[in-house]
Amino acid sequence: MATVATISPEVRAKYEPVIGLEVHVQLLTETKAFCGCANRFGSPPNTNVCPVCLGLPGALPVLNKRAVEFATLASLALNCTVRERSIFARKNYFYPDLPKGYQISQYDLPLAEHGWIEVPTPQGSKRIGITRLHMEEDAGKSMHDGFADSASRTYVDLNRCGTPLVEIVSEPDMRTPDEAFEYLTRLREIMLYTGVSDCNMEEGSLRCDANVSVRLRGAEKFGTKAEVKNVNSFRFIRAALEYEIERQIEIVESGGRVVQETRLYNANEGRTYSMRSKEQAHDYRYFPEPDLPPLIVSEAWKAEIATRMPELPEARRARMIAEYGITEQDARTLTATRSFADQFESAARAAKNPRRVANLVQSELTMRLKAANLELEQSPISMKGVAQAADLTEDGKLSSKQLKQLFDLCFERNEDFGPVYEREKPQQISDAATLEKMIDDVIAANPAQVEQYRKGKKTVAAFFVGQVMKASKGQANPARLNELVTKKLDA
Ligand code: ADP
Ligand code: ZN
Ligand code: MG
User: Fold this and answer.
1) Which protein residues touch ligand 1 with a CB less than 6 Å away?
2) Is the pTM of this model over 0.90?
């Protein structure tokens, strides 16, 4: 990746980055924020439109109740204080994808304020403040490419006009690109758990603008910030911030001054470019929207919305760690999405040993998903399948080698564990006489280990189990084998 010239680690360490993020999240309502048009991605251009979202003269907006409920639920999940009375405002600017000439947003009296997200840091964890969460509507989309005459024309698709959004503005509380990455990861997780958004970055339902400045360590005043816009993945945001921090340090080190401006990140080149400076910045001429009354979220309504709050990811992880005796790392994987955590929990509760289920997910399953480049949600083996495999292993009806082979088959054939197991029914040697014969052979071939065992090093038993398992090509019944090895060695 391209970096600015080379800044030595010593110089880098003299400076402290300051980062604040502005995140737009599209709400998963059926219809748009102020009209009855479908709120849907991927429809043919300009089909989900009406006089309201096209801004035709005389059309009046009516606020979508569901959008308010989603925004309120998101606010509560982010520990914000929800204002009983908030005001919609017009944010005026000219752009071809904005037919009204203004965006309905909230300005000085937003829906919610003063929240926070707890993010993990190398030192433990840290609270990142949330300044505000306000409701607004999205604009349409300019289409610059993909048409035969794209060289000379730009088309406009207004389907997205009027899509309900919340904008979540953080305090300038982050100090490293990693913290920004964690903040976004937590924020996305909370939006997904509450079900207010699908947070699909490719489809634009989560968008982030990153503000960043640098100051000498110990300095009180913030440096001048630059805003990096429209970066389309969390990894790229982290990379854009890294680049931007170095660029700014270099300017300050060489006696220059950072200019306040908006910059764009080019992922191919791994660098940012100036888009517009503060002098060209918009003056939006906000004023209260005369066509909408104040939004009132009463205590009673707020309480009713709060009853829909699911267990949030952080709390869920803590409970699962306690309940199933799993590690923090396991809990992170298993709570990646709410539906996945639900599946895991229902399978784990029914399984003989929940921890074994967690271990299988973390080891055998994750390994294969990585190799096949699949997400957890795309796994051919369901949580129920993993639990079934765990139970068979627990009962000694399946050796770990057999389990691995069956998992491989599941991935090869894109089939769940249950049917594959039923068909394959791996051979198992449980017959005592056969197993004893094999154990005798291994004992005879390894007198030194026998000696160790008899001198008290009981862990050597595992060596004999392993050797017999190998000799049986993984077919020895592990439970029977364990039992017989100990019996033989103790004889
Ligand atoms: P603006 O007036 O340019 O919109 P705001 O004060 O509204 O700036 O802040 C916008 C975002 O930028 C917020 O997320 C805030 O935390 C962040 N921010 C503000 N000042 C700085 C700074 N000096 N360095 C980094 N981020 C900042
Ligand atoms: Zn409409
Ligand atoms: Mg601002």
Assistant:
1) 18-22, 169-172, 211-213, 222, 225
2) no
Of 105, 117, 211, the one to substitute when testing ligand 1's pocket (max ligand atoms within 8 A of C-beta) is 211
Go through 231-260 and write b for each residue having 16 or more CB atoms within 10 A of its CB, e for each that does not: beebebbbbbbbbbbbbbbbbbeeeeebee
Task: Give distance in angstroms: CA of 404 to centre of ligand 3.
Answer: 54
435-476: per-residue pLDDT in tens?
888 898 899 999 999 999 988 888 888 999 888 888 887 788
Residue 88 Cα to ligand 3 midpoint, Å, equals 16
Number of H helices and E strands in the chain, helices first, is: 18, 16
Percentage, residues of the chain above pLDDT 70: 98
* DSSP letter string, 399-411: -HHHHHHHHHHHH
pLDDT of residue 288: 96
In this prediction, residue 5 carries a pLDDT of 58
Q: According to DSSP H, which parts of 229-364 are helical?
A: 234-253, 299-306, 313-324, 328-334, 338-350, 354-360
Rounded CA-CA distance 436/88 in Å is 80
Question: Rounded to whole angstroms, how far apart are CA atoms 223 and 10?
Answer: 19
Percent helix / strand / coil, the chain, rounded to 5: 45, 20, 35
Q: What residues are neighbours of ligand 2 (ion), with CB under 5 Å?
A: 35, 37, 50, 52-53
Per-residue pLDDT at 280 = 60
pLDDT for res 2: 47
* pLDDT tens sequence across 386-426: 999 999 998 888 888 889 999 999 999 999 999 999 988 87
Between CA 107 and CA 86 the distance in angstroms is 9
Q: Is 330 exposed, middle or buried (0-12, 13-18, 19+ CB in 10 A)?
A: buried
- What are the extents of the domains in the chain? 9-302, 313-424, 432-490
Residue tagged 């919305």 (tokens):
305
Residues of the chain with pLDDT under 70: 1-5, 278-281
Q: Which of 225, 257, 286 for mutating ligand 1's site (highest number of atoms within 8 Å of CB)?
A: 225
CA 32 to ligand 2 centroid distance, Å: 7
| CATH code of the region 432-490 | 1.10.10.410
**C-alpha closest to that of 265 among 275, 279, 252:** 275
